[in-house]
């Protein structure tokens, strides 16, 4: 029986994550083994509207990229075809819907399907395009691990390993100087990275969005560290951490803009360091780990998960299961509807095992 030849496209959208290239490699190899052609769209959907923005992907193209960080296709946080920024003659920026152009480009290029790799924002775009008739299969990607439809996303464990190593290195300098060190980690409005890395690196205080903190309780824990002997303290704060009754902290000049880019969380580490120093009198320093959490080689776990996701995505295309996303539901990688995948954000459960473990071993969440 002769296999049906297909031409499929793949893109990567949103923030980068360790493991993206492994997914691309698995898609290309799995598809070419079926006799299909594979094309990469550069910078999310942007490549569809640019000359040379769609490239052939072959075995040679993806040779030796499994271990590489980043993405050979490039990515962007500003490439939503349903809300595309277009500058007018008077210099103002208007947001226009170019989704019909995306579908037209797919027809013109005779592409049979799209494998869209991204987080909740990118997958919401994929879900909307699917509803308009584009054959789409989603692959979940975010270091934040906040997609509820999958147990874990690739890139998360590498980000945790990077953060854990950084926090571990701060212990020695904090002890040497008798300082409080505040480490700000990524995660948006979910505390997964901060919780995992904070526990693994034996932080004294972990602040996550799911558990609003009280500054008095936080400072009392720090003072206790100095009074009982260690003479230093490590505070891990998710970028979305917030004080009880307060609001999130945003970077300056990151208000919602005409381009449709959302305000960016950030600055909680510096804010806390200043408040802690004022309240306790202890010398305090802050560190924002930032994009180091996104960079570098994926660890073995993320490589394997990314390869499994890429292979499974091609199987869904083969079986005509469009409007779906691959998801890890141990022990298998299964298909879930894209609508389910983007329905809600996965937050840290307050009664979960890891929160209980942290409390049991004396880590404070600043709430008591």
Structural overview:
With 368 residues, this protein is of the alpha/beta class. The protein folds into 2 domains: 192 residues, Rossmann fold; 138 residues, Rossmann fold, CATH 3.40.50.460. The protein contains 10 helices and 13 strands. A hairpin with a 5-residue loop joins strand 4 and strand 5. Helix 6 crosses helix 7. The relative contact order is 0.17.
Q: Helices and strands in order, then pairings?
A:
Blueprint: E1 7-12, H1 20-32, E2 37-41, E3 54-57, E4 84-87, E5 93-96, H2 99-108, E6 113-118, H3 120-131, E7 136-140, H4 156-177, E8 180-185, H5 192-200, E9 205-207, H6 215-227, E10 233-238, H7 268-280, E11 284-288, H8 300-318, E12 324-329, E13 332-337, H9 338-341, H10 353-360
Parallel strand pairs: 1-2, 1-6, 6-7, 7-12, 8-10, 8-11, 9-10
Antiparallel strand pairs: 2-3, 4-5, 12-13
Helix pairs in contact: 1-8, 4-5, 6-7
Shape: elongated
Q: Helix amount, in percent? A: 25-40%
Order of helices and strands: EHEEEEHEHEHEHEHEHEHEEHH
- Enter the CATH topology name of the largest domain: Rossmann fold
Number of strands: 13
Radius of gyration: 22 Å
Distance between the termini: 67 Å
Q: What number of domains?
A: 2
The number of helices is 10
Mean pLDDT score: 92
CATH architecture label of the largest domain: 3-Layer(aba) Sandwich
Q: What is the C-level CATH assignment of the largest domain? A: Alpha Beta
Beta-strand proportion = 15-25%
Low-confidence stretches: 255-260
Spatial order of the strands forming the largest sheet: 3-2-1-6-7-12-13
